Amino acid sequence: MLELLPVELPWLLLIAFIAGAVDAAVGGGGLIQLPGLFTVLPQHNPAVLLGSNKFTSMFGTATAAWRYSRRIHIPWRPVLLAAAAAFACSFAGATAVSLLPRDAIRPLILVLLVLILGYTLLKKDFGALQRPTHVGRRELAIAVGLGGAIGFYDGFFGPGTGSFLIFLFIRFFGMDFLGASASSKIVNLATNVAALCWFVPAGQVLLAIAVPMAVANVGGALAGSWLAMRGGSGLIRRLFLALVCILILRMAWDTLHALA
């Protein structure tokens, strides 16, 4: 059993709550929670902290997905197909970690994020309204392709998965920001469960902290999803742009640090 000093667990619970709220609204909770775990518990193996992060996030993501599904229209056929493909391909992404250097794709991800930011800023009506597309075989094939690519990326690298999902759901399925954020939670949940299929049997989850953090993350997810539905697509768009800017800064810093 992990012994925590009285000051450590409250900090971890606060981090988990904030991460759950941010992730429920626009994704990116891992940018808060994972560094928090590494900072508060530096003595533990990185794989254990990664597994604990996934375990905690899974419950918050499931809560947000449930909340959104009750209030927001979700095109279930393409979203569930994307989730299934993401689940399957996240295993391949995790396997590729040992075969391909992550540093090799970081500049590419940085360029993609800059393009997404520019496109969203220039196209003022992007994601402002729901413009549902007819879901035929072509759209279902696109859903499988997008889900597979995102699942592989999440298993291999991870940062920005939620942002990519939101952008792609708007671009290819005519969703608004709120609907895209809601739909992205279904796919995120699938990739979290896929990762835990390895982390849990391997004993790479600190249940003594992951369980209370999961409760806090669920509380944050309830607050974040409530705020997102209250603020609508306008709020999600602003949060999305802020998150993409943060991701760009982080990727740029990591890229420069890797080259130094």
Automatic annotation (TrEMBL):
InterPro entries: TM_pro_TauE-like, TSUP
Any one Gene Ontology cellular component term annotated for this protein: plasma membrane
Keywords: Cell membrane, Membrane, Transmembrane, Transmembrane helix, Transport
Chain segments annotated as transmembrane: 78-98, 104-122, 143-173, 193-223, 235-253
Pfam families: TauE
Membrane-topology descriptor: Multi-pass membrane protein
Location relative to the cell: Cell membrane
Record family assignment: Belongs to the 4-toluene sulfonate uptake permease (TSUP) (TC 2.A.102) family.
Protein name per Swiss-Prot or TrEMBL: Probable membrane transporter protein
